[in-house]
Every structure is written in structure tokens, then in C-alpha cells.
């Protein structure tokens, strides 16, 4: 499967006539699936990443979760895919600012440390949606304040 960048194309137009893209926080699993995968899950990941009506938000924690292994293992195509995605991100969460929020979110909804960081980061940047590979029965889907979508 060809590895592509988020398109950043046309936006939707709201009632005010202003362009508005869906601010989307992409979970690490979605990026890993897109970078490594083939098949239905990878296609679903690319359908989100290539959606011209989306802009992307991210955090240092997603980078830490996926980039070091690709670099260390000399997976150059995977590393380049991730770096291209991170370059396309338009809104970054302040890592220091979300640490306390992450503890509260993880404690409230029973999330793992990284999932708590990802949800808190998505909330901090005002994301409309968090897209993940976590199944609908997983704790992440209990989080409030943001739409959680599984690919």
C-alpha cells in the first residue's frame, strides 16, 4: 500500500459561510496501521488521513509512542511516513499543560497512562474527534467531552 500524507484539501462550509475542518486527533495505533498495514484497517486509516475535510492535532506523546522504534529499527519508510504526518499537523498540545489533565482523565475513565495522555491532549487542543484502533468496548470509549471513533 502506498504511504500518503494527509491531504489538507477542501473544507466544509458552515452556516456562517466560514470554512471549518474537523479537527482530528489521530491515535498512535491509526498511524502504525497506516504506515505498516494493508487491508481493511489500513484503508480505514487512510480514509481518515486523506479526508480533505479534516485538519490534524497531535502531541509529543504520540511521537514518543511511535517514532523511536521506527528510527532505532531503521524502518526508513515508516519513519518518513510518521515525519510527514507530523509535519502536516496543524495543532500541537502543550505537553506540560496536559500532564495533570491526563492523570484526571485516566483516573476518571479507567484509561492506561498513554491513552489518558492522548485523550487529554485531544481535549486540550479542542479536537472534534479522536480516531483510534481501540475497539468500542475498550476504556478509551468511556472518555467524555470528545467523539471517539474506531477504524
Task: Note down, in words, how this protein is organized.
The chain has helices spanning 28-36, 40-49, 60-72, 76-88, 95-109, 113-124, and strands at 12-13, 19-20, 22-26, 54-58, 91-92, 129-132, 147-150. It is of the alpha/beta class. It has a single domain (12-150), classed as 3-Layer(aba) Sandwich (Rossmann fold). Helix 1 crosses helix 2 (40-49), helix 1 crosses helix 4 (76-88) and helix 5 (95-109) packs across helix 6. The model is unreliable at 1-14 (pLDDT under 50).
Strands, total number: 7
Written as H for each helix and E for each strand, in order along the chain, the element string is EEEHHEHHEHHEE
Give the C-alpha Rg: 15 Å
Alpha-beta classification: alpha/beta
What distance lies between the first and last C-alpha atoms, to the nearest angstrom? 17 Å
Judging by the overall fold, what is the CATH architecture? 3-Layer(aba) Sandwich
The parts where pLDDT drops under 50 for at least 5 residues are 1-14
Strand order, largest beta sheet = 5-4-3-6-7
**Mind describing the biggest β-sheet?**
5 strands, parallel
- For this structure, the CATH topology is Rossmann fold
According to CATH, the homologous superfamily is 5'-nuclease
Strand content: 15-25%
Overall domain count: 1
Tally of individual helices: 6
Percent range of helical residues: 40-55%
CATH class: Alpha Beta
The coarse overall form would be globular
Amino acid at each position: 500500500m502506498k504511504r500518503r500524507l494527509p491531504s489538507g484539501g477542501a473544507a466544509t462550509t458552515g452556516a456562517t459561510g466560514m470554512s471549518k475542518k474537523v479537527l482530528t486527533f489521530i491515535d498512535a495505533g491509526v498511524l502504525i496501521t497506516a504506515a505498516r498495514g494493508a487491508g481493511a484497517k489500513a484503508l480505514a486509516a487512510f480514509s481518515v488521513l486523506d479526508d480533505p475535510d479534516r485538519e490534524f492535532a497531535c502531541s509529543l506523546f504520540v511521537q514518543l509512542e511511535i517514532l523511536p522504534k521506527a528510527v532505532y529499527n531503521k524502518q526508513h519508510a515508516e519513519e518518513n511516513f510518521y515525519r510527514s504526518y507530523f509535519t502536516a499537523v496543524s495543532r500541537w498540545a502543550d505537553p506540560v499543560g496536559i500532564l495533570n489533565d491526563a492523570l484526571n482523565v485516566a483516573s476518571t475513565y479507567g484509561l492506561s497512562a498513554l491513552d489518558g495522555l492522548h485523550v487529554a491532549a485531544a481535549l486540550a487542543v479542542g479536537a472534534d474527534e479522536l480516531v483510534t484502533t481501540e475497539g468500542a468496548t475498550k476504556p478509551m470509549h468511556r472518555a467524555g467531552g470528545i467523539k471517539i471513533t474506531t477504524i
